[in-house]
């Protein structure tokens, strides 16, 4: 893989991770320990961890 395409993929993964962490921190459905666990899962599983958060972690999202 060329360095430019690798860095673009890494940048996209970093942006997805940051958005996931912000979503976890702002979620009122989990306490401090639960948020910490989800951040660790998102960190170690990268994109898969973010997808798992979207499917299982967010809980009910209130409609506005």
UniProtKB/TrEMBL annotation:
It is a multi-pass membrane protein. GO terms for cellular component: plasma membrane. Keywords: Cell membrane, Membrane, Transmembrane, Transmembrane helix. Residues 15-58 form the Cardiolipin synthase N-terminal domain. It is found in: Cell membrane. The chain crosses the membrane at residues 7-25, 37-56. This is Cardiolipin synthase N-terminal domain-containing protein. It comes from Pseudolysinimonas yzui. The lineage of its organism: Bacteria, Bacillati, Actinomycetota, Actinomycetes, Micrococcales.
């Amino acid at each position: 893989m060329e360095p430019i395409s690798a860095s673009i993929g890494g940048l996209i993964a970093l942006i997805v991770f940051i958005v996931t962490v912000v979503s976890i921190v702002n979620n009122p459905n989990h306490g401090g320990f639960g948020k910490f666990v989800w951040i660790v899962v998102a960190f170690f599983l990268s994109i898969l961890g973010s997808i798992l958060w979207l499917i299982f972690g967010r809980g009910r999202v209130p409609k506005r």
